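Record Nicotinate dehydrogenase subunit A, 155 aa.
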Amino acid sequence: MATKEIQLNVDGNNHVITADPEMPLLYALRDDLGLRNPRFGCGLAQCGACTVHIDGQAVRSCVTPVDSVGVGKVVTLAGLGGGNGKAHKIQTAFIEEQVPQCGYCLNGWLMTAAAFLEANPNPNDGEIRDALSGLKCRCGTHYSIMRAVKRAARA
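=>
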């Protein structure tokens, strides 16, 4: 396993880590930078718990090689509202709709919905369902999640 210095911009902060270039970005975020919001779920990009934004696009960090980020800007749930404790409209909508249950999957839903609403600010129900397909929530809060995404779209 050959390692190299890799520069990352995460939530507006520059970091340098020494890692195997093929290591998943998720591991760099959690293990090297100590972040806790992208979560390890399945490790196969099937559940969404590890979702982050790279240059505004929602990506599954568990299968994204850390070196592939390049000069891209990584945003985690902690930086979604722009930092300084400011909430993004999707975070506010999830709270207002009382979506959270266990919370394990919320990172994926919030990050995916935020990127989706940026690209499609006035979605219909079918578009929302399509955009969020593939995400998993064992608590069954899907109806609340739909209401929250629609609320955020109106905000």
